[in-house]
Amino acid sequence: MHKIKTLILASLMALPLVAKADGIASLKKFYDETHSMSANFYQVVTDKRGKKIQEVYGEMQLKRPNKFRWDYNKPFEQQIISDGKQVWLYDTELAQVSVRELSKALGSSPAALLAGDDNLDKNFKLMNAPRKDGLDWVSTNPKDSDSGFNKISLAFKGDVLQEMDMIDSFGHQTKIVFSNMVHNPVIEAKTFLFKPPKGVDVVGE
Description:
Blueprint: H1 2-14, H2 23-33, E1 36-46, E2 52-63, E3 67-74, E4 78-83, E5 86-91, E6 96-101, H3 102-105, H4 110-115, H5 120-123, E7 124-132, E8 135-142, E9 149-157, E10 160-168, E11 173-183, E12 201-204
């Protein structure tokens, strides 16, 4: 019997130790180790009754801190670009560009979770959420009540970001699913520069 116990103990000691995965740990590791990122994304927006009101596809790139680019390609074209100082929103259909100072536009916004500086704990209240669909979820509620979002959740598989799920102040839910993720790619600085095309209206600050 003693020999059997010894063998069992030896076999257990030989097993690799597996750290318990959780959303907060994955988010902080992503935040610490991600200097740049690129991915395709699918975004769907539903109202508070669950009715689909928008569905779009596109590509995104970011370079921390505070530089990002979201290109919505179909069914409509739109660009959201931050050069680190200003955020530009270009709607090709309306031929209009909106611009805001980054410090006023970022704060506790979803973009700050991905491309922000070192103010993660300052701007968001982090809580582990129940694991679902094989993913580790973390709830990142904005501390700023004027952020426009009541709840922002992120999902990771291992340390790879898979989804963002947001509830805004109107009860609309925005779900973003990432694919073809590239971690820390080299992205040229000009990617995050925006010059308004001729003939478009520029509004904002």
